[in-house]
Amino acid sequence: MKLELKDSSLLKTQAFIDGQWVDGDAGETFTVMNPATGDAIAEVASVGQAETARAIAAADSAMLEWKALPAGQRSEILERWHALIIENIDDLAAIMTLEQGKPVFESKGEVMYGASYLKWFAEEGKRVYGDVLPSANDRRSIVIKQPVGVVAAITPWNFPNAMITRKAAPALAAGCAIVLKPAAETPLSALSLVELANRAGLPAGLFSVLPSSQSSKVGGEMTSNPVVKKLTFTGSTPVGKLLMKQCADTVKRTSMELGGNAPVIIFDDADLDLAVKGALVSKYRNSGQTCICANRLLVQEGIYDAFVEKFAAAVNDFRLGLGFDADTTHGPVVSKKALGDIDNIVQNAVKQGANVVTGGKPSDLGNCFYEPTILTNVDDNMSIFSEEIFGPVAPVFKFSSEEQAISMANDTEFGLAAYLYTENVGRIWRVSEGIEYGMVGVNETAISSEVIPFGGVKESGQGREGSKYGLDDYLETKYICIGGIQR
Questions:
Q1: Catalytic residue among 106, 124, 221, 257, which?
Q2: From which residue to which does any coiled coil extend (predicted)?
Q3: Helix (H, G, I), strand (E, B), or coil: what is residue 257?
Q4: Which of 155, 229, 294, 361 has the fewest CB atoms below 10 angstroms from its CB?
């Protein structure tokens, strides 16, 4: 379909380096596809190592003046960027839906969510406090915080707007410059964002965007270049581990938001309707393509059948379709490869004894659509118990006791998000403290916002994004000792 924008200049296909729109040095491009139709949307410039090095050098130069600006002046530019995003929300959402596939109402929600980080860190950047420490009489000990340096960022395709602002906002607010490589599946959202940052008055060089089909060349320069002081990444755990190894040679600061295997634990004293509603949103939002989505539904045996019945009835009301259609509730997955991976997980579970309650196969709509699926008769010996599904598939496991639920929830190398439903106050505390996750939702699955520290433990990553803690990852702590005070 043809994309009609109110402001057609937001649709960019070149790289943005040092304040200029440029082609790749070799003139290479790659095709961005619409996952709902399989149609080509645009040919986008593909950059490599040399362009990445130039962007890093420009960032280093631009930071000299940027970090010296009063925080209030940096804040004003971030506020203008925020206002421009809200002003252009319809176009930004349309671009996202076209290249990523999610329904346009979800895209608008993401744009609002992404913009909230700019607003938040525009304020938090003015609150970077230090300390004066108690010292001996002839000296004073002072602690100050300074920007960490040039930041390299690599972002995913599932949230192509918010995963960028969640990194760029704190970096810029802290006084850093940022060089970004967006996912090859969804570069257009990133390029529209940097266009608006440029219009907001962000100085040249502070924010470069490097679309590329050559991830290893761009990423290799980011991790090896000594000018880069920090790398922030959202994506899979295997790639995150590789990037951490590559950053070790130059001892870069890293923050990683990696894979998840989120349980939703539903106890027999839960509000069943509330639990069904929360599990539906968590599991099927963005067609299951979120790192904190419900990956395993753990339901106590006394309410298991009643939960599955209510859950399935609600899932059967979903409507797959194009993201721009008004009655569409869920769009496609991102690619044919992703659909194949999802179907392999489902078919393997069925071979191991799982029952398909609803769905269980690719949709007749074709391309990248997979039917919303529920699986029962699954247990923790099956491979689906430990796999990150990243699709619209809900395996519903049964447990008997609170202790078993905690053990099942913790039986994974991941530890990003977890959820539980219960009306028992004591159980809320016991389970929340007993499960090994960085974020826990109690009687709620919509837990993410700009004011909370988003991040995981174990192999789900390190560092936190959002909240007052999110600025710390972009700051260094410096101690200054002043002697001879009493002379």
A1: 257
A2: none
A3: strand
A4: 361
Domain chopping of the chain, boundaries: 8-259+460-478, 262-411+417-450
Do 374 and 396 contact (CB within 8 A), yes or no? yes
Strand partners of residue 294: 262
Per residue in 297-328, pLDDT tens? 999 999 999 999 999 999 999 999 999 999 99
Residues β-bridged to residue 16: 21, 209
Assess whether pLDDT exceeds 70 at residue 487.
no
Three-state DSSP class for 233?
A: strand
pLDDT (0 to 100) of residue 135: 82
Count of residues making up the chain = 487
Report pLDDT for 136.
77
Structure tokens at 474: 């972009």
Q: What is the rounded CA–CA span in Å between residue 449 and residue 349?
A: 34
pTM for the full predicted model: 0.96
Specify whether the CB–CB gap between 217 and 425 falls below 8 A: no
Residue 104 tokens read as 């346009």
For residue 16, the one-letter residue type is: F
Closest CA to 100 of 161, 11, 28, 12: 161
pLDDT digits (tens, 9 = 90+) for 385-431: 999 999 999 999 999 999 999 999 999 999 999 999 999 999 999 99
Cβ pair 453, 467 in contact under 8 A: yes
CATH topology of domain 8-259+460-478: Aldehyde Dehydrogenase; Chain A, domain 1 (3.40.605)
Token pair listed for 291: 């790192």
Amino acid at 13: T
